[in-house]
Design goal:
Layout: E1 8-12, H1 18-27, E2 36-42, H2 63-83, E3 92-96, H3 99-110, E4 114-119, H4 125-130, H5 133-138, E5 144-149
Parallel strand pairs: 1-2, 1-4, 2-3, 4-5
């Protein structure tokens, strides 16, 4: 199976459940760690918030500084995690934005053949209420998508 996949994008959230996704992804073929890229997307922190006069808080808040600090902390954490699975820490990218859109864009940029992403397997109202990043990634992905059922 791995023979047809040369660039694998592993999409992780910041939770410890990401280890299940890494385990499944690297089980495809642990000998080709150089094929793996990892991305974590942080949803926008200030989207749609504005001041009383309609001016954006982003213009007055140190939002970029906060994003930079969050990015550093998440990057360090994810790099440490992926190293345990034999993936080079320099293959980690942390992005800010809408998760599915950023994952799609990153997959296109690296010319990924496969995206591996976790799914809690929610159905019905919970999926509608909470949304499903895995479902959104699946629909519109520029390549194959492997969803990993998150246990627990």
């Amino acid at each position: 199976m791995i023979g047809r996949y040369k660039r694998i994008l592993v999409a992780l959230d910041a939770s410890e459940e990401g280890d299940q996704v890494l385990e499944a992804a690297t089980a495809l073929d642990p000998r080709v760690a150089e094929s793996y890229y990892v991305t974590t997307v942080v949803p926008p922190m200030m989207g749609g918030i504005s001041g009383m006069d309609g001016a954006s808080f982003a213009a007055t808040w140190p939002l970029k500084d906060m994003e930079a600090e969050i990015s550093r902390e998440i990057t360090d954490s994810v790099r440490e995690r992926v190293a345990r699975f034999g993936i080079s820490p320099d293959r980690v990218t942390v992005l800010f934005g809408r998760p599915a859109a950023e994952i799609h864009a990153h997959a296109e940029m690296i010319e990924a053949d496969l995206i591996v992403i976790g799914s809690h397997g929610r159905h019905g109202l919970p999926q509608v209420m909470l949304g499903s990043t895995a479902n959104a990634v699946l629909h519109g992905a520029p390549c194959d998508v492997l969803t990993v059922r998150i246990q627990g």
